[in-house]
Amino acid sequence: PPLVELKNVSLAYGEGSERMLALGDATMSIDDGEFVAVVGPSGCGKSTLMKLVTGLLPPTGGEVSVRGQPVTGPIKGVGMAFQNATLMPWRTTRDNIMLPLEVVEPHKRRLRANRAEYIARAEALLASVGLGGFGDKFPWQLSGGMQQRSNVCRALIHEPQILMLDEPFGALDAFTREELWGIMQALWLERRFTAVLVTHDLREAVYLADTVYVMSRRPGRIVKVRTVDLPRPRT
Ligand code: ADP
Ligand code: ADP
After folding, report:
1. Is Nucleotide-binding given among the entry's keywords (predicted)?
2. Side-chain-side CA neighbours of residue 48 (13 Å)
3. Which of 33, 100, 137, 205 could be a cystine partner for 141, CB 3.0 to 4.6 Å?
4. CB 78, CB 96: distance < 8 Å
């Protein structure tokens, strides 16, 4: 079965006269290891779709399943990177990247016992994104692009099966942004996690993704998700 499957999923916010359909009749299927992008204008329901895929929001209609099982709550094995995700200024880049490990492994003693392995993991990730040797720097010592690369490393440190990217490069200048597309693609080719990217930028979607879903705004805020199969720019 596909890793993630949405069947005729809809999501309405609010009750009664306040009720508003944010997503209507969305059907999509994501395979393990696939790179999917979701493109659409502001307010079309992209973030809502992300929350449905990760089980943070139960659908009002239809069905979401992950690994063949209906989703009933937040799913495991997900890493997330956002446009505004900030690194903690009082922690080094390496310690920022290792932060999610403190959440998945709250047992202090085990965390200490595995520290050497976790540091090695963080260093390997930093090297993959061209930040080898920058682990000891503090976030404010890094450029915007370098901070976003660190954010992606932080999202991958617990080796999630699914990486959710919500406008991860949105705040960057055009040059840095395109530089990060190449880095992101190399990282995905190396590690083969399943990626779901939300973006306004169709070029970014086409550059990175195997499948691009285009979300359109419709009267009554009903939004349909359509697949567009595009030839892969890589290889
Ligand atoms: P996008 O991420 O594409 O900008 P969203 O999924 O954030 O779109 O929002 C889709 C629509 O649902 C928007 O009109 C937004 O205002 C509305 N919306 C989003 N979150 C909520 C919420 N928690 N309560 C009510 N309306 C919401
Ligand atoms: P990015 O493209 O990641 O935003 P910049 O264009 O700001 O980076 O910087 C170009 C290069 O300069 C970086 O890839 C990095 O090698 C170097 N650099 C930037 N900031 C620093 C810093 N604080 N310390 C050391 N080198 C840096």
Report:
1. yes
2. 23
3. 137
4. no
